[in-house]
Amino acid sequence: MDLTVVAYIVYLLVSVALTVWVARTLSRNGRIFLSDVLHGNEKLADAVNHLLVVGFYLVNFGFVALYLSQDEAVADARALFEALSVKLGVVLLVLGVMHLGNVYVLNKIRRRGVMEREQVPPVPPQGWTGPHPKGPWAPPVAGA
């Protein structure tokens, strides 16, 4: 068997395994985070989590497939390891960037939810203040 084909097979196996492992880790730990962001709505958190995982798979598997081609034939074991290290290194970097992007977006969503919760007064209003006797446009009275 040609070493280029061996490189393709190893690259695909390792890339797919890494993508599945990262996606499962993100899904398992991201569900808790999403539940907090979505104020305990478990069904919505599960749905958003599933959609994020599907998008993660699509982007990463698409990248793995596009990055599969090899310009040069792999002649020996050294070239095989060099080709695999470059390809797998790029895949790992893409997985890391995707992970950081997901965390950044989810953190922005979470911060917005926290800010919305903090805008609600701790106690309801207990009364109203009447209008100024001369109206809000009246100039201040000297010596008052």
Strand content: under 5%
H-E string: HHH
Give helix % range: over 70%
Rg, alpha carbons: 28 Å
pLDDT average, as an integer? 82
Low-confidence stretches: none
Main sheet record: none
Number of helical regions: 3
Q: Distance between the terminal alpha carbons, to the nearest Å?
A: 98 Å
Structural class: mainly alpha
Summarize the structure.
With 144 residues, the protein is mainly alpha-helical.
Care to describe what's here?
13% of the residues are buried. Helices cover 71% and strands 0% of the residues. The chain is elongated and about 95 Å long. The N and C termini lie far apart (98 Å). α1 runs antiparallel to α2 (42-66), α1 runs parallel beside α3 and α2 runs antiparallel to α3 (77-118). It is mainly α and 144 residues long. The protein has helices spanning 3-37, 42-66, 77-118.
What distinguishing features does this structure have?
144 residues, 71% helix, mainly alpha, elongated
List the helices and strands and how they pair.
Elements: H1 3-37, H2 42-66, H3 77-118
Helix pairs in contact: 1-2, 1-3, 2-3
